[in-house]
Input
Amino acid sequence: MQIKERLQDRVFSLAASILILCIIMTFIFPTQFPTVENFSQLLLNLSIDTIVAVGMMILLISGMFDLSVGSIVAFSGGLAGYLMYYHDVNFLIAIVAGLSGSVLIGFVNGWLIAIAGINPMIQTLAMMGIVRGLALMLSGAGIQNFPYNFIYIGQSKLLGLQAPVWYMIFIVLMFSFLVNRTVFFRRYYFIGGNERAAKLSGIQVEKMKIWAFVISATLAGIAGILLSSRLGAALSTSGRGLELRVITAVILGGASLSGGFGKIFGALLGALFMALINNLLIIGRVSGYWQEIILGIVLIVAVGLDQWLIRKMEK
Amino acid sequence: MLRLRNISKYFTGVKALQNVTLHFEKGMIHALCGENGAGKSTLMNIIIGIHQPDEGVILWNEQPVEIKNVQTAQRLGISMVYQERSLVDSLSIAENIYPVQTPVVKGGLIDFPLLFRQTQQLLNELGLINLSPMTLVKKLSTAQKQMIEIAKAIAKTPSLLILDEPTASLTHSETEILFRILKNLKDKGVGIIYISHRMSELQNISDIISVLKDGKFISTIDSKTPAQEIVRLMVGRDLESVKKSSNVQMEVSLEVENIRGKGFRNISFKLHKGEILGFAGLQGSGRSAMARALFGDEKITGGKILKDGKILHLNHPSEALEHGIVYLPEDRKAEGLFLHSSISENIFSAQLKKGFYNAAIADDVSLKLCKLFSIRTTTVKQHLRKLSGGNQQKVVLAKWLAQEPEILIVNEPTHGVDIGSKEEIYQLLKYMTAEGKSILLISSELPELLFLSDRIAVMHEKEIIGILNREEATEERIAALASGIKTTKMYICK
Output
């Protein structure tokens, strides 16, 4: 591939930016940045976001998005915690319940959007409030004292990396393979590219849309379970603002709000890029207030630069 | 009035226009023709100020001018009717026609009574008496929208009017109204630049014809020049013409009995193997609705469809595909293409079999199809938006051929396609019938229908009003039937 095309490929340009950022940080903070602890912490922090971002990437590829994922994170952890704490339910059943609840929410979102024709923004915005309310009812001020088996899921370590990092790696690899190589997932690009043409190409757009919301909600549910297991607590405030952070990561990773673009690795790299900038600000002792300001600027610059590049190439 | 001298324009290495010198005069209809990519659009974009020439001079009434943007062009009196519609659906006809020069009362509020009066007057002048200025644009048919688009350009009282493929979505009768309007304007001294792919139209309406090829000006000729000569100038070679031949077999592949649905009713016909059954009719006569229903994209509320003697129930295009029925939609950009995907991805977008996708095999198959269809590209990884209209259309056709269909429904297959590609598409359709595939051809271009079809069904008011054999079909007969006139003399087999 030519340099020109490479530059247009966000996965490539983002990976290069991350590499450069890492090198610069190694030089500026040689004792704090390039350490195993720092990296394992950094990866742990981004694992929850990335798992949700994978589902969001699939939605954005097909031209939709889901604002309720942050609430689903709190809900699935809350439901599992509620069952374990108040009803002594076995931890596996509690997890299955949490995930099933998430699947159901995803299905309702998908059905109302694809079949009833409600706009995704409105539907998932409403669902965001509804599910947050449910999470509040379930976990109230927070639930603690989970069985050991449940805690183990999110707090065990393998090869120096925390379990959520491994789940994240597995999910990214699996979905990356599926989206690249299966006819089913590739259809999301066609739906995002031109929905009408997709239907006339024999693609069952409505069913596919419902599946996309179910997948995204399920991944958010998994993230919720992992988060409450890792924290050892189910908090009704978990995942607040997560949806926008995740959409930011996915857009940074090369997706477009109008659909048709994006790769699963882009979701990982987008989240990694954001985590690195956060890391930089923390190590550099920049005030917490600045973090969001800087992330906002980074998003605008990245997307603006992209648009500028595309226009430049077209000419 | 407008003189272009030695205009050149480059787009990163590509010479879009080279040394073009052209003169446009008052009170004259000047047709511009050339294949897609010949530089017509670039030239027009320069005249209306979207692009600036890299070299050359523009003279307006003998004064050198620099047309920096569309506003400058409008001040000079240059107005253009775009191929792509620029109307806002949720606003009224009047508001759409006067988006900028809206009359206002004191305080900047819109003077609606005056606006409506003004619009009504304009509509009357244009012979669109049955339209009210207050009607919302979304309630209009495609053809009516196109007429409003033209009204919008005329409302600016231009001294030079540019029309790019204005008749693409118009039917016969509306085209006639448009021609009357243009002749009127011409008599008033307005200069008109007319771009079209339709040869007969060019000769009918224009005074002189200028031909562009590969960004160069070829020549300006009298509009009475024989069509073949013009085509030769445009293409640079003689076109091998497709022989009028028939591959109809006895066997019936599709039988439709009395189907009805939204926009069509009482439709019955038999489609034989190797046959091309043409469908003529006015916009809104139900041809497209029927075609979509046969593809499972629209509901069928009664009647039955038999394929090879078996009843079909089609609820979704995917089911039609499984039965070997494919559909080439009317609006290529909106319904047929994935502009940001590559050629091979487009071709494999209709892959029915689930499972794993192998990009290498897809590219390989696509490359073969590109050769077979003479799709001009360097690589199958090329994105569709970078191809010309003709090549895009061939990609959509290739996609359906890759599915090995038995029945092809094609809706306006040569809409906005240049002459060279048009011939190639005709050859492809013929080639498919030779393979025993059946084709249902919907077209608003009568010569195309007459040339390709074995039989022609004419639709009027949602029904088939008559089916003509090849021998009895003439433009006049089809036009008469399409407007609902059945003469007793005519033999109608139904």
